[in-house]
Design a protein that fits this description.
The radius of gyration is 20 Å and the shape is globular. It is mainly alpha-helical and about 350 residues long. The longest helix is centred in the middle third of the chain and has 31 residues. The chain has one domain.
């Protein structure tokens, strides 16, 4: 296989996002174990399966969006020519077969049907979000499968080692609500890009523009975005008061993730669409810190915070290096990719 094709397949799977969301299930595993030793064979197969399933969700989006990404993400390997549609399709089928085999192996080793059902549900929503005939991302319901997939990440990690309890359910609820707004942030980013390139011709008030892929006016979309992303943080002190969240997790969630989410709406109020790419970047940072806080709290049960912080910093450095392997345009690939064409 040619080096260019291998590079294209790597980019199509969007490995930075596979890496970025891994603290959500790894942190859940550590907390679910509660100091016990893991069953290493099952854990290894689980981690491999999760990586493949998240990559499949990203790959489905890369493949299905190959035409519109000429506008939105020109570094898509099916846009740059690194991958042909036929090669991408064959590799995608192979990857899904591998995922099925890994799930079967995990079932045979763990006999944990709840875990397999949760992982299969995540697999399904990842495909239904991007691929026809459902292609839910282009409907008003698009944020829901995205939020379900995000909420399932810590649940699957927990189910590998323990039964569901109120903590992991509460944390998944927090993620679900915040992820609804996160997906709307992404739709507003796409709307901003479309306007900037002249793909949308609209002389109305910016708040009355129809949001790309969501079929809602900007004013309605931004309202839902605010209610969900900021509303999720209202749950944190409630869960803290009920004794579901401990002090480190609660304080952690109410610092950087909340501050960054508030910053999104400061930018949104100043210029709802002109600042949409910046809002997307800041909201992504909020999500990264949310995942790292769960991982950090989990690691702190094993060793001192003095060691946890360098681990989290190292995680961020690796994330940036992975981003550079698929987005050669740097920061602008996230904020204004049309400027790079």
């Amino acid at each position: 296989m040619k080096k260019q094709t291998l590079s294209g397949l790597w980019k199509a799977n969007v490995p930075p996002f596979v890496w970025l969301w891994s603290p959500l299930w790894i942190g859940a595993i550590i907390l679910g174990l509660d100091g016990a030793a893991p069953e290493w064979t099952a854990t290894g197969i689980f981690l491999a399966t999760m990586a493949v399933l998240i990559a499949i969700a990203q790959y489905a989006n890369t493949y299905a969006d190959r035409e519109e990404d000429r506008l939105y993400i020109p570094s898509n390997p099916l846009v740059t020519g690194e991958l042909t549609a036929k090669t991408a399709r064959n590799a995608f089928i192979t990857q899904n077969i591998l995922a099925g085999l890994l799930l079967l192996a995990l079932l045979l080793i763990t006999d944990n049907y709840h875990l397999i059902i949760a992982m299969a549900a995540g697999w399904f929503v990842g495909l239904a979000y991007s691929l026809p005939p459902l292609r839910l991302k282009e409907t008003i319901w698009g944020p829901i499968p995205h939020a379900i997939g995000m909420a399932l990440l810590p649940i699957t990690g927990w189910l590998l080692v323990a039964s569901l309890n109120k903590f992991i359910i509460a944390f998944a609820v927090f993620l679900f609500i915040h992820a609804l707004g996160f997906e709307i942030t992404n739709k507003l980013r796409k709307t901003s890009h479309a306007l900037s390139r002249g793909h949308i011709q609209d002389n109305r008030n910016v708040y009355d523009v129809s949001t790309v892929g969501l079929k809602l006016k900007v004013k309605t979309a931004t309202g839902i975005e605010a209610i969900t992303t900021l509303g999720a943080f209202i749950l944190v002190p409630v869960f803290w008061h009920l004794g579901i969240f401990d002090v480190p997790l609660s304080i952690g969630l109410l610092t950087l993730p909340l501050i960054l989410t508030v910053l999104v709406f400061v930018l949104r109020i100043r210029a709802p669409l002109a600042n949409a790419p910046k809002c997307m970047l800041v909201m992504t940072m909020a999500w990264i810190f949310t995942a790292l806080i769960l991982l950090g709290v989990a690691l702190a049960t094993l060793f001192h915070w003095g060691y946890v912080i360098p681990v989290c910093i190292g995680f961020i450095v690796v994330s940036l290096l992975l981003v550079r392997t698929i987005y050669p345009f740097g920061r602008r690939a996230f904020t204004a990719p049309w400027l790079e064409i």
